[in-house]
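Re-running the complex after MR caught last week's input typo. The corrected sequence lines follow. Everything else is unchanged.
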Amino acid sequence: MNMNPHPQIRLARLLLARSYATPLTIEDIGREVALSPYYLIRAFRRVYRKTPHQYLIGLRIARAKELLRNSDLSVTEICSAVGFESLGSFSALFRKVAGISPKMYRINSRPTETPSYIPLCARLLHGLEDGTDL
Amino acid sequence: MITRLSVSTIWAKDQNEALRFYTEKLGFEIRADVTNGDYRWLTVGSKSQADLDYQLAALKPGGGFTQEDVDHLTRLVDEGKMGSGPWKTDDCQKTYETLTSRGVEFLQPPTDRPYGIIEAVFKDNSGNIMVLAQDKPRAKG
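Corrected-run output:
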C-alpha cells in the first residue's frame, strides 16, 4: 500500500470513514475532494487496492461485525445503523464478505472487551499501516 | 519474562470456508476479525480455552508473501505436512463421533496408544492435519 497517497485521496478515504452510515454517492465524495468520479475511483483503487464503493462496503460490514458482537441491537437495526437500506442485500453481502450469516456471526462470536487489532508481527509482514478499517 | 503463547497460525486456503469449518464443525468462536485494506486478521478459539487464539491466515500473495511462497505453502498443506495440535479432548471417541456427524474427515479413528493417550487424526477444510488427543488416567499401583 502507498503510505503517502495524494491528500485528496486521503481526504476521500476519511470522508468515507466518517460518513459510511449515510447514503453516499461517488459524486458526493468527488465534489468534496474536487475530483471527477472517474479519476477518484481510479486513483483511490491505485492507492488502497479497492474502489471507494468496495471500501465503503468494507467499512459497513466491519461496523456490522462489531455491533453483532458487542451490542444488543437486532440484525435489522444493525443493517440500518451501518447504512444499508435492504435487510436482504445486507445479509447476502455480509455472508459473502464475512463467510457466515449475521445471525451465525453473532452466535459464534465472543464479545470483545477491548478493540481488536492486527498485531505488529502481521502488520510488519504485510506492510500495513497502524490501525484497522474502522 | 515471557508468560504464554497467545496466537498460533493455521494456514487457510479460503478464510470464509475456514471460518465456517472452525465455527460450525469444530464449535470454535470468533475472537478477532478486522481488516486493513485487503488484509484480514481473523482468529478463532476453543470456547474452553479463552487465552489461545488461532489465526486463520489466508494463503494468498501479499505483503511479504510472493506467489512462489504461497504455492510452496499450499503444496505443503496439500501433502499433509502442515497442521496443529494435539487438540485435547476429555472423550476422544465422543468427539470423533460428533465431528464425524458434522462432516469432518478423519484419517484415523480414536486409537489407544501404549504411551497413555487415545489419539485420532482429522483434516480441516484446507487440508491441515490435526491430532485429537485424550489423556488416559494412569493405572494405580
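None of the earlier attempt is carried over here. The CA atoms of residues 75 and 102 of chain A lie 7 Å apart. Chain A has one domain: 7-126.
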